[in-house]
Amino acid sequence: MMTTSRLMVLLCMAWVAPQLVYSQETNLPDIRSVADSVYGLNDLLINGRMYNKTHRRANGHPYFPEETFSPGAVFIKGEKFDHLLVNYDAVLDELVLEVRESLPWGKYLVLNNKLVDSFLIGDRRFVQVNTLPVNTAGRIYLEKVFEGQFSLFATHQKIFKSEYSQFNPNGIFLASPATYLILENGSFYEVTRKKQWLDYFIDHKKELKNYLHKHKINLRKANFEQLKQVAAFCNGF
Asked: How many Å apart are CA 65 and CA 16, to the nearest integer?
């Protein structure tokens, strides 16, 4: 079955072709640009399905890092698509695209995770686990927090709690604690807790403890920037 995007491209070509008859040379990129300007999206990018937010009346939201769709970019098969509005549904573990102009079937699309290599939400990068040497994280997308002698990743997950109450008559979305993983030499090592960090960098245990104490960093509650700082410090080992 012909996809809507291909149909639109063919219609655009049919509109442009007669004009090219009178041109001395055919300019195929112009045909593509006309198609893109009319439809606004590329076949690779829209290779997914319609997105429906679940439990719309519940308190909270399923997204990470925030509810609003943010400027970002998507990398698919080596091609970068930027100037997009994207968000990450941390309940369904899906990348969602907000289309500039609503398509016939809706305004939001779930992008095909088998095609997406990575994406940016603002300055925060997420990668598809199948692009990594191992896939034991239990999620489709991981946030890359740091990259150096080792890489530090974070998993983000939300759950919908259906225990209805006076304060949450339609349920509530709750964030699960993030899990942090070091990827080195093709293997993942969890470093969510302080002890796990100290055990991983056992030869520099004292230095790391002093650093955390000096900068008043609680690894269990550390924010994104603090974790980057700790990882950069450990990278010096």
From this structure: 43
- Specify whether the backbone of 40 is left (phi greater than 0), alpha (psi in -120 to 50) or beta: left
For residues 185-214, give the mean pLDDT: 94
User: Which residues fall within 8 angstroms of residue 81, CB to CB, at 6 or more apart?
Assistant: 42, 44, 45, 73, 74, 75
- Structural contact between residues 96 and 144, judged by C-beta atoms closer than 8 angstroms: no
**pLDDT tens-digit map of 178-199:** 999 999 888 899 999 999 999 9
DSSP string, the chain: ---HHHHHHHHHHHHHHHHHHTSSS--HHHHHHHHHHHH---TTTT-EEE---S-TTSBS-SEES-SS-EEEEEEETTEEEEEEEEEEETTTTEEEEEEEEEETTEEEEEE-TTTEEEEEETTEEEEEGGGSS---SSSSEEEEEEESSSEEEEEEEEEEE----SS-TT-EEEEEEEEEEEEETTEEEE--SHHHHHHHTGGGHHHHHHHHHHTT--TTT--HHHHHHHHHHHHT-
pLDDT tens-digit map of 1-14: 444 444 343 334 43
CA distance 199 to 208: 11
Model pTM? 0.77
